[in-house]
Amino acid sequence: xxxxxxxxxxxxxxxxxxxxxxxxxxxxxxxxxxxxxxxxxxxxxxxxxxxxxxxxxxxxxxxxxxxxxxxxxxxxxxxxxxxxxxxxxxxxxxxxxxxxxxxxxxxxxxxxxxxxxxxxxxxxxxxxxxxxxxxxxxxxxxxxxxxxxxxxxxxxxxxxxxxxxxxxxxx
Length: 171
Hints:
This protein has 171 residues and is of the alpha/beta class. It has two domains: 4-86, no CATH class; 95-168, no CATH class. Helices cover 16% and strands 22% of the residues. The chain is built from three helices and seven strands, in the order H-E-E-H-E-H-E-E-E-E. It has helices at 17-20, 63-76, 99-108; strands at 23-30, 47-53, 82-86, 110-111, 141-145, 153-158, 164-168. The strands form two sheets. It has a four-stranded mixed beta sheet. A three-stranded mixed beta sheet has the order 1-2-3. The protein is elongated and about 65 Å long.
């Protein structure tokens, strides 16, 4: 797990894959010595690893990069073989973000997802999620676009400090 904490999310590099909550299971098991012309076993510790991850959404373009980085990181630490599997059930949710991840997002200038949807308007059918500005913490904000710098974010603007910012969407 300590090695996996060193792997950043390619789209939000302030978070690691443990903070993000996409690592669902890690299985470490003993492996017999295997002769191979392609793999140097001098650094092997005799343990194989299976890591199960759940992408933040189906079709996430960062999944292949994350899988390759997990394999390289664990193999270079002496684990062999290393298998990374993806599972889509249960679907990833922003509830899996650690509290530390929420703080890191805010410090990086990205509003973390609200734990429970909240509204700014009392008029029927005028429900807009209340998102606080990561810079000045004002809730006097507006959505500029439901699409931000990545598919998991929306673009907002603070009406008090006038700064635009990404909001990590709840899902």
